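Researcher: Sequence recovery benchmark, item below. Answer with residues only.
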């Protein structure tokens, strides 16, 4: 009697186990949803997509510096994806991000300069990206693209881009732990983040070019950066011609 009962129960248990495994696999493909409290004044971005349709090999092949853009605005989903690729949180339990950081010190700060009609459903202005909550915090309203282009040695694609992503850094977050060697680690981390922007742009069929040629003090003043934040990179983004 007991043997027959076990023989009938085993297939049911295996079926239940298979169902649980399928559910877990499905959950793994869903966008990251974090249990966070939003701060007043911050704008929640669409959740990033974490299961794409373009392989990493294809994005590496397609990655290039593109300086000519049309007038088509970016979507808020595209902006969300680019910012998440640069510094999004991938390990909510301890704050790990998309780009490696020496000692988990995370010195980078990310800003976007949005042109007029640059992004659907987002007003022009300067915004600070808040990785922990995947939000935008408005720093200043208005199209500052032309002013940023002047600060960037009149590189015309800065003014033509739909958005410009600016990577800044608080060096002390890393040098407090690693001393002068930490300066090198900060520059390495900025390179990791900008390569992520390049690859994500390729996956989204967007064009981007990153540059380090600009007047640091002018960019810092234009973005209203605190004294401890130093600009390192500008990445212009738009739909390629």
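Model:
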């Amino acid at each position: 009697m007991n043997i027959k009962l076990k023989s009938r129960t085993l297939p049911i248990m295996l079926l239940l186990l298979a169902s649980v495994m399928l559910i877990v696999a499905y959950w793994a493909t869903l966008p990251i949803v974090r249990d966070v409290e939003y701060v007043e004044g911050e704008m929640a971005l669409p959740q990033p997509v974490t299961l794409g349709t373009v392989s990493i090999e294809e994005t590496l092949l397609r990655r290039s510096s593109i300086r000519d853009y049309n007038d088509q605005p970016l979507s808020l989903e595209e902006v969300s994806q680019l910012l998440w690729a640069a510094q999004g949180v991938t390990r909510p339990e301890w704050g790990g991000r998309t780009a490696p950081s020496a000692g988990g010190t995370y010195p980078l700060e990310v800003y976007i300069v949005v042109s007029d009609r640059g992004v659907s459903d987002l007003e022009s202005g300067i915004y600070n990206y808040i990785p922990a909550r995947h939000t935008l915090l408005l720093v200043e309203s208005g199209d500052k693209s032309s002013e940023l282009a002047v600060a960037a040695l009149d590189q015309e694609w800065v003014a033509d881009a739909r958005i410009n992503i600016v990577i800044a850094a608080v060096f002390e977050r890393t040098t407090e732990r690693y001393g002068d060697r930490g300066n090198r680690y900060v520059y390495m981390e900025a390179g990791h983040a900008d390569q992520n922007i390049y690859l994500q742009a390729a996956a989204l069929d967007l064009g981007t070019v990153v540059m380090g040629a600009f007047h640091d003090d002018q960019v810092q003043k234009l973005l209203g950066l605190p004294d401890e934040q130093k600009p390192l990179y500008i990445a212009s983004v738009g739909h390629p011609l």
